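# nightly structure sweep
# worker-07 picked up a monomer target from the shared queue
# config: single-sequence mode, recycle default, output format = structure tokens
# input follows
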Amino acid sequence: HCADLDPSLVAWAKSLPASITFTKTPVAFSPAQVPLATLYYVIESLAGAQAPALHAATFEAIHIHRSLKSSASEKDVQEFASKQLRLDAKAVKEKWTSFGVTTQMAKAKAMADTIALEGVPALLVQGRYLTSPAKVSTLVTLSGRDPNYKPLLYKTMFEKTQALAASIALS
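# output follows
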């Protein structure tokens, strides 16, 4: 689950060498998830250096405090952005349907469709190589360890992803 993975993911991303670029991409698997994915790009376009803190606050509101539903309406998400994140309500509405945000949403959907993404969390390297905790659980099981032990799953996933990225960079 994304909420379980996020703290480890943030720490791992900070430890990556400068030659590796890490980018988060929200994925909406259903129309009900579109408002939160859209909010991600609205925050990116409005918040600048504050974006990571606002993403974290949004993530916590969804997964920890449960004050924002993952299926919240566009209106509810925009209200959350203005009241809880303190973004200008008019600017949020303008950005919501802006060319930049709609283009980012289209690119994210195209990427998810192209790789036939079935679930999250997942890591994609070079737009071609996909891994996830579910995919590395087999490796952990074969090593004789408990595949439900999430820290080991995440560590294995990060190691495999980083090794793949490094080998691609060398080729």
